[in-house]
């Protein structure tokens, strides 16, 4: 993305000074980042299924908390669309706003609508369908075994850096036709993390720009010498996407495959290491790793909030008056744990009706969820097989979550185990 402010049609925006809804709550702060479920409960009590919130810089938006309401938003593109140029707040947004990588309009599949979205999503789907899931599982196991071998003799490691983030990173760059190691690839992954989940002192806008530059070079290389990879299939597809369209869509594919999948692995391992019921059910065979992963999507989904949708016209949602151009944040974690669908606080591992991959035309394109499942399942199964006595190296209360309202993943996951002979 450019570091300048995004383009938009001024005639489509509302006047400045759009009112902030009474009782709007800031989506920030240490307490929210560590225990977001408490804020979701509070918002439900105060505001119902759709709550007024404030994003970075006190920019107003609506957080959709209800399962039914979120399902409605994602399946009614005629009312809640993806083109962010509809936003009625653009003239108040500074060029260095940290959420620009999320909402600044780009010629990406994420912001297209109608026939154009179906064309672009179709290219991604066909490119991903070329990935053999059995080969991916085999490659992920090899990657997992190599990563484990690097720390297995020490008897302890910090899994987030040594395993959880590294495995999907290596897998996704491999299927996209990039080298699986090297400083160039690592810089790309670091910049993607900053773009999606910036920490203090990070510059997400600049990081996003570097990601685009690296992928422009990749597309140029694949134009010259195509190979058996996702990027080459997008380059040679009959839809004739431009280089910039492919770059933007590759960013979406890689970002969705790496960071959320890593946090999915992380959150599953955390539950296995801290929740006795969860661990016993898996080790005792009453719950497969696949079912455990599915339960985590309900309870601790890796993408907890997603920005967003923009109202096409004035409408009503959850008893709220939504103005044309208002921004809606999809509260995926809140919706997945909505007491209206789980009144007894019980989540069935066999139920796959969660909204972790969103819904409607803009849901995660098939077969991406299946590929993410292959990566995550292989990562968890291989680790448990190789290190059967794996346990936390700290007390569960000492684990901390990354300070993000968007992604749900630990800052670190220190573990210990019996050292393996090298």
UniProtKB/TrEMBL annotation:
State the source organism's domain of life.
Bacteria
Give positions of region: Disordered: 1-20
What InterPro entries does the entry give?
Answer: Cyt_P450_B, Cyt_P450_sf
* Cross-referenced CDD domains: CYP_unk
Q: Which GO terms describe its molecular function?
A: heme binding; iron ion binding; monooxygenase activity; oxidoreductase activity, acting on paired donors, with incorporation or reduction of molecular oxygen
Polar residues bias locations:
1-14
Instruction: Tell me which family the UniProt entry assigns to this protein.
Output: Belongs to the cytochrome P450 family.
Q: What is this protein called?
A: Cytochrome P450
Identify the taxonomic lineage of the organism of origin.
Bacteria, Bacillati, Actinomycetota, Actinomycetes, Kitasatosporales
């Amino acid at each position: 993305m450019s570091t300048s402010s995004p383009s938009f049609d001024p005639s489509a925006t509302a006047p400045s000074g759009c009112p902030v809804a009474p009782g709007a709550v800031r989506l920030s702060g240490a307490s929210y980042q560590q225990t977001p479920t408490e804020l979701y409960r509070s918002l439900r009590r105060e505001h119902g299924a759709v709550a007024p919130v404030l994003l970075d810089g006190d920019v107003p938006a609506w957080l959709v908390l209800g399962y039914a309401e979120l399902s409605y938003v994602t399946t009614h593109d005629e009312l809640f669309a993806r083109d962010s140029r509809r936003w009625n707040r653009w003239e108040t947004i500074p060029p260095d706003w940290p959420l620009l990588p999320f909402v600044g309009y780009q010629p990406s599949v994420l912001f297209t609508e109608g026939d154009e979205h179906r064309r672009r999503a179709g290219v991604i789907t066909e490119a991903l369908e070329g990935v053999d899931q059995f080969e991916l599982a085999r490659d992920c196991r090899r990657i997992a075994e190599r990563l484990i071998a690097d720390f297995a003799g020490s008897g302890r490691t910090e899994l987030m850096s040594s395993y959880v983030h590294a495995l999907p990173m290596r897998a996704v760059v491999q299927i996209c036709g990039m080298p699986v190691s090297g400083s160039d690839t690592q810089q790309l992954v670091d910049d993607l993390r900053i773009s999606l989940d910036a920490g203090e002192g990070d510059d997400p806008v600049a990081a996003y720009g570097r990601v685009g530059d690296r992928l422009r070079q990749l597309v140029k290389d694949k134009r010259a010498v195509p190979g058996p990879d996702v990027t080459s299939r997008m380059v040679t597809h009959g839809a004739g996407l431009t280089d910039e369209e492919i770059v933007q869509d590759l960013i979406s594919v890689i970002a969705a495959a790496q960071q959320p999948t890593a946090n999915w692995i992380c959150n599953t391992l955390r539950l296995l290491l801290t929740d006795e019921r969860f661990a016993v059910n898996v080790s005792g065979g009453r719950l497969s790793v696949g079912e455990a992963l599915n339960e985590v999507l309900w309870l601790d989904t890796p993408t907890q909030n997603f920005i967003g949708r923009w109202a096409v016209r004035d409408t009503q949602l959850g008893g709220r008056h939504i103005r044309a151009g208002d921004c809606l944040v999809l509260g995926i974690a809140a919706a997945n744990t909505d007491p209206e669908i789980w009144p007894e606080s019980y989540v069935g591992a066999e139920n796959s009706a969660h909204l972790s991959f969103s819904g409607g035309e803009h849901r995660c394109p098939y077969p991406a969820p299946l590929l993410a499942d292959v990566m995550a399942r292989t990562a968890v199964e291989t680790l448990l097989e190789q290190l059967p006595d794996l346990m936390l190296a700290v007390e569960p209360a000492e684990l901390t979550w990354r300070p993000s309202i968007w992604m749900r993943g630990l800052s670190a996951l220190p573990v210990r185990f019996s050292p393996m002979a090298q």
